[in-house]
């Protein structure tokens, strides 16, 4: 009886004694908030030499996280090279006195060279997808230069570059020329679906960054085939209905007028009677207001408003059609998700054309798009003729 009680007590004690076997004190953790991956070259054995740069936080320097400047950096960037991301991450642990801790990772930046190499982007993402410490909300970006350079920026109003970059990305809804942030979980779905996809693009600009445009990938080999600039990304967002805010400049009587996008809705319909010439009808409804004008024209007049709406309509159709043309003729990549729509609405046809949708026979490139934009002005605001007044002096 006594032995049973002893066994019971010992067994219960295991519940309290084994929970912290792998505990690491917070002072000993190396908090990683940003990672950048670059390709250093190709070895004789055919493997690629990769460089991983991690941004570690230095907690002792974060006295006031909202203030920039200071005598010392609040972060340190540590780089290591190798053929395998797993091996590099293990080597990284030997280069810092603190144990690398990935659960606060915010952004992953991949260089243009990696993105342009067949299947290498997918290989890089594999370790971030498999590691249970990685959150699926981590944001992924393609740098139009060395990825390490982006982590090296030192913004004047932030102590941690990775958090500064994340904040800029979160503000992307204010402009239609940037994509919404793409997260690791979404990238995982892209890699599994094997459809063409886009990843946000980033470049350095002075002491900060420029977050606009997109990197375009073919889904069947996960290779970047080109990039969209800001205007082309705006066309993509308008066509897909993902443009939440933004601005369009038009000319009214030789003066600049800025139309602010406030609500964008798109509707796509598909005619699949001829698989060699699929017709896609794109209807975009835009509502917005006049944010700024320097002209003398009375914009309250119906005639003037009609002219503004017509010019906005024409400009938006021009932007969208240019993006479509580039996707079909230069990139040959269905970045609009048309293939997914055909799969959902015309499954039997999709089974016939899916393997040659945007490569090979390329039914996507042979498709015909019809774009129609309906633009409305919600509010006119106030007219400021200052610019014209001073230009005439």
From TrEMBL:
GO terms for biological process: spore germination. It comes from the Bacteria. It is a lipid-anchor. Residues 22-203 form the Spore germination protein N-terminal domain. Keywords: Germination, Lipoprotein, Membrane, Palmitate, Signal. It is found in: Membrane. It holds the Pfam family Spore_GerAC. Belongs to the GerABKC lipoprotein family. This is Germination protein GerLC. The lineage of its organism: Bacteria, Bacillati, Bacillota, Bacilli, Bacillales.
């Amino acid at each position: 009886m006594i032995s049973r009680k002893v066994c019971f007590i010992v067994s219960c004690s295991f519940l309290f004694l084994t929970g912290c076997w792998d505990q690491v004190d917070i002072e000993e953790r190396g908090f990683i908030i940003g990672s950048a991956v670059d390709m250093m070259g190709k070895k004789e054995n055919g493997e690629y030499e990769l460089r991983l740069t991690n941004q570690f936080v230095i907690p002792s320097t974060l006295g006031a996280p909202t203030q920039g400047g200071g005598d010392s950096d609040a972060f340190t960037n540590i780089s290591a090279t190798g053929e395998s991301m797993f091996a590099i991450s293990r080597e990284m642990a030997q280069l810092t006195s603190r144990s690398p801790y990935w659960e606060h990772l915010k952004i992953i930046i991949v260089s243009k060279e990696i993105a342009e190499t067949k299947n290498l982007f997918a290989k890089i993402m594999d370790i971030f997808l498999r590691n249970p410490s990685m959150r699926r909300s981590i944001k992924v970006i393609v740098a139009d230069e060395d990825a390490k350079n982006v982590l090296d920026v030192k913004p004047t109003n932030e102590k941690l570059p990775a958090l500064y970059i994340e904040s800029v990305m979160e503000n992307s809804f204010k402009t239609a020329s940037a994509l919404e942030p793409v997260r690791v979980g979404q990238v995982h779905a892209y890699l599994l679906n094997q459809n063409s996809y886009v990843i946000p693009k980033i470049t350095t600009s002075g002491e900060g960054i420029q977050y606009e445009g997109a990197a375009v990938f073919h889904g069947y080999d996960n290779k970047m085939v080109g990039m969209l600039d800001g205007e082309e990304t705006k066309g993509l967002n308008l066509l897909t209905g993902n443009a939440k805010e933004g601005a369009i400049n038009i000319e009214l009587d030789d003066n600049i007028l800025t139309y602010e996008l406030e609500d964008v809705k798109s509707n796509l319909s598909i005619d699949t009677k001829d698989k060699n010439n699929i017709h896609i009808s794109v209807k975009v409804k835009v509502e917005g207001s006049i944010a700024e004008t320097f002209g003398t024209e009375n914009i309250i007049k119906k005639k003037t408003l009609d002219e503004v709406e017509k010019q906005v309509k024409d400009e938006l159709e021009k932007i969208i059609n240019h993006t479509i043309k580039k996707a079909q003729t230069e990139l040959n990549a269905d970045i609009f998700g048309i293939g997914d729509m055909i799969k959902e609405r015309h499954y039997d046809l999709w089974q016939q054309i899916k393997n040659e949708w945007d490569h090979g026979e390329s039914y996507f490139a042979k498709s015909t798009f019809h774009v129609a934009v309906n633009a409305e002005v919600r509010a006119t605001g106030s007219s400021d003729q200052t610019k014209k007044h001073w230009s005439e002096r």
